[in-house]
Every structure is written in structure tokens, then in C-alpha cells.
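request received
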Amino acid sequence: MSENKRVAAPKAQNDLFRKITQGPGLVSVLGVIVALVIGGLLIAVTDRRVIETAGYFFARPGDFLSAVWKAGTQSYVALFNGSIYNSAQGFSPFLETLTVSTPLICAGLGVALAFRAGLFNIGAQGQIIIGATMAGYVGFAWNLPIVLHLLLVIVFGLIGGALWGGLVGLLKARTGAHEVILTIMFNYVALYLLDFLMNTEMFRRPGSTNPISPVLGSSAVFPSLPGSRLHLGFVMAIALTIFVAWLLKRSTLGFELRAVGHNPAAAQTAGVNVARATILAMAIAGALAGAAGVAQVAGTEKVLTAGIAGSLGFDAITVALLGRSTPWGTFFAGLLFGAFRAGAVNMQISTGTPIDIVLVVQSLIVLFIAAPPLVKAIFGLNKKKRKTRSATTMAGA
Amino acid sequence: MTAQTLPTSVLPTRPAVPLKTPVFLTVIAVIVLVCFGLLGSSAAANFRLSTAGDAFVLPTLVFPGKASNLVIGVLLVLAAGYSWYRRKQGLVTQRWIVIVFAALFVLSFLIWVVSGANVTTISLAALLAGAVVLAVPLVFGSLSGVLCERSGVVNIAIEGQLLAGAFTAAIVASMTGNPFVGLVAAGLAGALVSLVLAVFSIKYLVNQIIVGVVLNVLVSGITGFLFTTVMQRDPDLFNSPGRLPIIEIPGLSSIPVIGPILFKQSVVGYLMYLAVFLVWFGLYKTRWGLRVRAVGEHPKAADTLGIKVNVMRFWNVTLGGIVAGIGGSFFTLVAIDSFTKEISGGRGFIALAAVIFGRWNPIGAFMAALLFGFADNLQVTLTIIGTPVPSQFMAMMPYLVTIFAVAGLVGRSRGPAAVGEPYTKE
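response:
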């Protein structure tokens, strides 16, 4: 394949043109559009008014078409109103989007970093859970001075995630077990562990039979912007994005991780300690997911519950994939999916469209972006049939 | 033997016989001896073998708690010692010893929890029968995994296939009023999920793990969406599938213990036994199976011999989807007679664990699924009789066992060589 490329190397101009028309940028945008359209059709097909008008489609097709258009667009307008701007609240929904994005970005960075090192971190869910558990415990059980307390909450959250992720790295490096299987299994172990802890005296709110922890002390939570749920955790997410960008691009460790991700055998030959890189990659990835746990427990929720991680760990995978495993790509993908999440709440209230549509759109986006030839085929961009690189580029490059 | 003849320089990083097995066996043996034996309750644990309606009555098994576990503990310590001795001789511990060891451990664990519980009698017959029922979707899911992975395609989407099967079975059976039509539709739904997996991973060369993970989210989203928008609006029309009948084979079904397991099942239950046999027979006794395994191990060699690698994979993945889809119908046509969101509840991932623990072999996966079903049912039983073991730790068991299995602490799990790698002709 590489030979073909060398032979058919186009001029620089053509190259630029191709990058714009067929590069990941355009494909990503088109992928998002196709996914949104399919989601809209799904909303329309199940809409009551659409079903009614379909009954007399041949008599008055206009009714049917306008109902379809209405059903689809109304939902998306509500989504926009709930996530970015509406006339009543101005831009304050956007603050909610940032709040919801915070853990998505942190955990997404964890998944992305592991991808770059050639590791499939399906375990963000478990790492978030353990991070949130440790951070939460420090937050509600300890009494500490104001700045120190929050710092320790963050540190323990990072350590929790790092341990849970690092353990997977260690097992992989030592025994060669596949990290996908390990991380999936570790997710469930973490889930049941938290479920168990939430039913003990140590974690349960005194006098309550529900599995819910005491509220975190005011010294242990992120300060938040008055009038919204947005908290300082978002700044942490930005800082972590900058850190990961620096780590991957400028640091020796980052270079080693990318080398291992591209070709572990070559990296080994070049003197990289692959085992160490694997363990560190998983530990840092875990710490980043742990930061998502911190953002949840010390920012958005302020209590620890068995469902603290929601489906964040799995959303994080789609965030990292949409962001093509680059730090800033992940950041903006996190914002986009955060907007979907935040807007979906409003959408469900005002148009009755279930939140699940977000899952559908989200996964379709990732599927389409992972298969550029399919998107190009849909839009007829596939004039010259060229074999695309195998989609390991999704994970690796 | 081979380890002795090989010069040590061939294996520079690893000793000839790994320490794992002896160390692991010793740790378990000490736990049994100390925790279950010395510190265990001395009350007797009673296991009832017969249930009402059996053709003849078997006596109840009675194990004095402490004494039995001390005996088992000593046996296990001896076995562990033997494992160390074998290692010193440069030999690995025989597999049957490890299997007997594991069986004794399970027995000892059962005696320990039951003798320490508030009620010291459990029905072993009901425990086993329930375990098989709970294992049904796991078995179908793991067979799907075996079919896909043996041909070289990783199937993380088992969960999605089960869920799609469960949803479709419910809605089609409700609308047609016939659960058998629902069963067929469930197979088709599973195949549809598989088709997406196949198209994206084989045609578009998207990483198989990515497609699998994303498909699970997609199916969860679509079924959740349709559940709220369609099913909940008119549950009578869309979400009341009715159950598949339980078919009892007269006479045979009243044999104690094995009667209910083998001869008192739903159609899906009988199909499970049939599917295990067919997949095993197909993979190991037919030309088709040989080709599938060749494609999964060494696609290039298979291609050279004229086997169409990607076509083979495509059909195998589709077949796997049908199998898992039928398994999904268990949730809505056998277990309960309606669909709810996320009704498969992560069982697709336990099925994946069963594939690995069963070493990518249909019989092995079947056994592993039964073991996990047993753990699942034991958890329910133990909560009822009130034991000190938190139910969450029982629920963790399948996952922990799998971690041990893939990390090589319990035997060695190695998948088909070419699994996960797309095949392109050069």
C-alpha cells in the first residue's frame, strides 16, 4: 500500500485539495450531519403526528412531510435551546454544557492517551468509579482546611484512577493479557465494589438506608459560578488537556508512548522499555479518568452514589474516537457530546423525545467517522476509489 | 518435557515452569484451611438433592462445616505441595489436578457459606436447575463469541446482540401474538447487529473492538428510544409478548437433580443444548469448521489454499449474531414477559468472559457459562438464606475469575492467532 502511495504521490496543490475534501475534517463534519439526520428520521418515524398524517399520505402528502420536518427540527431546536442559547435564559444553558462536558473531557483524555500508546482503555468507567470513590471519601469523611482539602480530594481521585488503570497496565505488561478484556472485567469489579461500599456504615449517610453518602464538606468541593452548576473542575479539564498535549508532543515519555503505540517491537529495539511505557500509559490514563470522577463527586453531584459514573466511561470512548485521540480534538468532542447531553434534558421535557436519542446519534457519529469511505460514498466523494488506511489510524495516529 | 529439552537461552525472561500455578494453589489451599476450616462455623451444611415431585427420593447430603473443610483444606495443601514438587522436577501441574482442585474449592466454599448462614439447608437441585436457566443467555452469547472469534473477528458486541434479540422478540411476539415468531425475529435482529459489525470491520476495515463497543451503545440507544416512544405508549399492543411454554418430557423430567436440568426447559433451553452440540460438531468435525479455524489462525495460509477469508468471516459473524439474538429472546420470552431498558444487564460481557475462560471452545464456553450462571444463582440463594458474604462479591466472581484466567493464573487462555486483524489481500 505504501508503495502505491509513493508512486501516485500527487503534487502539493492536489494534496492540499485532497486534505480539505477527503481529510478527516470534512469527513467528521459530514459524519456528524449524517448521524443527526438519521437521528432526526428516527424521531420523526416514531412521532405521533407523523404516524397520523402517514395514514392519509396519498391524500395530502404535504401534511406528512411537514409533520416529519416539524418532528425532527423541533427536537433539535429544543436540544440547541437546552445546550447553547435560548431567548429566555440567554447563554446560561451553555454553562450547563460546560459542566456536563467536564468529566467527558477528562475521561476522554484518558481513553485518548491510552489509544496513542496502542492500548484500548475500555476501563474508563471503572477508573472513574474508583477515583470518585476515593475522592468522595476524602471529601465527606475528613475535616481539613479550605484549600488543602480540595487538593487532597483531587489527589486521591487521581491516585484511585491511576491505581485501577495501572493495575491493568501491570497485568498486561507482566502476563500479556489483553487490556480490552481486563478493563471490561475491572469495570464490573469496580461497579460491585462501590455498590458494596455504599451499603456499609463507612460510606452511607448516617440515619439513611439509601446507598448515598454524606454531602461533601464545603471545603472539599470545587467553587462554582453563582447561578449555575459550572464549577472550577472545568478549568481543571482545560489544564489537563494542555498537560496531555504537552505530554504527548514535548515530553520524552510521550514520545515513548507514541513510539510504542506505532510499533512496540521497533520501540523495544530502539531502547524503549515497553513494559514500563504500558504501565505508565494505563496509570496516567486511569488518573485522567479519575479526574472525571473528581469532577463528578466534588463538582457536579457533591455526593457519592452508586451511579456516580453513569455511562461516562463509555461516552468517554466515543469522545476520544470523535476527537481522533488528539488532546484538543478530544476537548472539542467532549464539548459537543456535553452539549448533546445537556440539551437532551431540555429536549425530553419540551418535546418528549427520550434522552436515548443522544446515544444513537453519538454512536452513529463515531461509526461514520471511523469509516470515511462510507461517508464519502454517501456524499458521492468517492470518485477515485482509493483504499483508505486501515482504521487503526483511529486509535493510533 | 519440552521445557527440559529446550536450552534456557531460548526463553531468557521466563523460567521453564512458571511459578503461577503452585503459588496460586498454595494461596487458595491456605485460605480454605484457615478461613473456611479453622475459622469456619462447625454447624452442619445440608444440601437437599430431591425436590417435590421427583420419581424417587435421594438422601440429603450433610457436611459438618468445620470438619469437612479441614479435610478438604488438607487435601488442597497436599495438592499444592505436589504442584511445587512437579515444578522442581521441571514439569507443569497436570490439568486434571487443577480441575479437581477447583471443584473441591467450590465445594468447600459452599459448605462454608451454608454452614455459616442463618438457614443451614439449601436445595442443591434447585440451585443447579436455576443455574442452568440463568446460564441460557450466557451460553448463546458465548457461542456467538466463539463463532466470530474462531473466524478471526473480535465480538465485543455480544451485549448489543442479546439486547437487540430481547427487544425484537418482545415487540414481534406482541404484535403477532405468537412467541415463536418472536423467537425467529430475535435471531434476525441479532444477525442485523452482526451485519453492521461485519460490514464495518470486514469491508471498511474499522477496528473490530471500536465497532463492537460502539454497537453496544447504538443498540442500547435505539432499544431505549423505541421502548419509550413505541412500547410505553401502548404496552398491550407492543410489549406483552407472552411466554414460551416450558416443555416437560414425561418420566425423564422427574429424575432427581438432572431431570429439571435436561428435560424441563423452555424451547430456548432445549435449543441451547442443540446449539452447543452443533457449534462443537461444526467447528471440530466438519470441513467447514476446519476452514473457519484456519481463517482465524492463519488467514494468509487459508487464502493461499483457496478459502475466501472475508466471505467466511462475514457468514460466521452473521451466524454468531443469529445465535446471540435467539439467546436474547430468553430475557423477554422466558425469564419475564416484557421488555425493559437494558434488560440484558451486562450479560453479554459475562458471555465474553465465558468465551475466554472456555478457551474459545464451544464446550469450554458452555461449561464456563454454566459456572457463571451457577455463581449468579448462588448469589440469589445466599441472599435468601442470609450469609455473611456480601452479594456484591458473589456478583464479582465471574469477572475476577476471568481476570485470573486471562492473566494466566488459572491455566492459559490464548485466542485464535489472527483474531482482531482485518485481512486484506496484497
